[in-house]
Specification:
The complex is a heterodimer of chains A (162) and B (265). Chain A has 162 residues and is an alpha+beta fold. Chain A has helices at residues 23-30, 86-93, 103-117, 123-129, 141-161; strands at 2-8, 11-17, 49-52, 55-58, 71-73. Chain A has a five-stranded mixed beta sheet with strand order 2-1-5-3-4, with helices on both faces. Chain B has 265 residues and is of the alpha+beta class. The chains are: A alpha+beta (162), B alpha+beta (265). The complex binds flavin-adenine dinucleotide and FE2/S2 (inorganic) cluster (2 copies). Residues 97-102, 135-138 of chain A line the site of one FE2/S2 (inorganic) cluster (FES).
Amino acid sequence: MASISLTVNGRQISGEAEDRTLLVEFLRGDLGLTGTHVGCDTSQCGACVVHVDGNAVKSCTMLAAQANGADIKTIEGLAGGGELHPVQKAFHENHGLQCGFCTPGMIMAATDMINRHGASLDEATVRAELEGNICRCTGYHNIVKSILAAAAEMSGTQQAAE
Amino acid sequence: MYETNYHRASSVAEAASLVSGSDDGKLLSGGQTLIPTMKQRLASPSDVVDLRHIAELKGITVSGSNVKIGAGTTHAEVAQSAEINGVCPALCGLAAHIGDPHVRNMGTIGGSIANNDPAADYPAAMVALEATIHTNSRDISAADFFVGLFETALGDNEIVTAVSFDAPSRAAYQKFPNPASRYAMAGVFVARGSSGTRVGVTGAGSDGVFRASDMEAALDANFSAGSLESINVDPSAMLADMHGSAEYRANLVKVMARRAVEAAA
Ligand SMILES: Cc1cc2nc3c(=O)[nH]c(=O)nc-3n(C[C@H](O)[C@H](O)[C@H](O)COP(=O)(O)OP(=O)(O)OC[C@H]3O[C@@H](n4cnc5c(N)ncnc54)[C@H](O)[C@@H]3O)c2cc1C
Ligand code: FES
Ligand code: FES
């Protein structure tokens, strides 16, 4: 058994898990954070994307023990004070989801993408960066639209704050 | 996944002693190949020794034209390295097209070359750059390192610590990615340096990565895409699988080589 201590969405958490436990199993099963989804379980679809120390990773392809000591952010940690995160709001406003199964991973991938590219994000970059996130419903069009809208809004907010 | 014991090493020496002291241990770097393989129960190591927290395996140093990349450096770090981009932008471009952003945040150059997947990208660059693979016990030339499909010259529990090479004056990598997996159906790295032109081919050869010496000779005589026209790539030396026949891959190798030469010219 491994003793796991993590910061998850700003909260200090510790627990025990078998060494073979995947990070996604620990988040969903042990911590009850079921917003992170398992789609393929074969490292392809990105439904399980979370941020580990600020980087988007597939939590089905990492052991919980590998993440020991890390700072984790999941979809549950994005909204603050009853307000949706700008990326969540943009998906809502632009009809960026249908069944919603891929959405947590899409949104975590999108926030990572916006963190790295900021206002310089363009459509081609968004499409290329969505390589690791599969959606069976939307045809991606409105997902791309949502991410571009959020990137514009977030860089606008940053400029206003500066 | 079968049961396993997780260990976190903080130095190469500790990793070496942990893995050799275990029953049937395996090194774990980014885990982007090993974890899926363990989940499919195609690997069942008694122990995994995590290399991700070993400082001496990380980092990029460029001095003059010499480039050294720690084995634990992620694909994302290579893709974004301004230092490498200054001397060998082709390698940054290669790293930027491995898998997807999430895979690139975890997967490492050491893990990729140790795994030597016949469709992986880095091996083509390593042979074309005539890189040296550094391990915890010796230095191995890329030509000797890549032995066959998923096979390298690494001994049991030998640890890749870094790769190094002299940046060529011109280089380019072109791959035709499998539309589903993004692994190379054929990928060609062309490097033009003081000792001539080197052409590394991945994704296509039935023995894994190889150097296309007839293309090298033609390009040494005349570095232009046109001089590849007369070259025949032999389908009998190509992989054939559900993704493409040997003839298809032979043609792709030529097309990717032509594009790489055009991009490097
Ligand atoms: C969805 C997806 C898409 C991908 N697409 C591509 C692609 O387009 N192109 C491509 O090239 N690759 C691709 N990959 C593979 C990816 O690049 C992996 O990161 C890489 O092959 C393995 O690196 P790793 O650090 O994750 O190694 P791990 O999975 O941790 O280890 C792989 C193997 O190498 C051994 N090993 C690891 N580090 C060392 C070391 N320092 N010394 C000795 N042995 C070591 C391990 O014991 C294991 O056997 C993809 C992977 C996924 C999941
Ligand atoms: S569930 Fe992790 S990538 Fe699909
Ligand atoms: S909205 Fe259904 S999978 Fe993307």
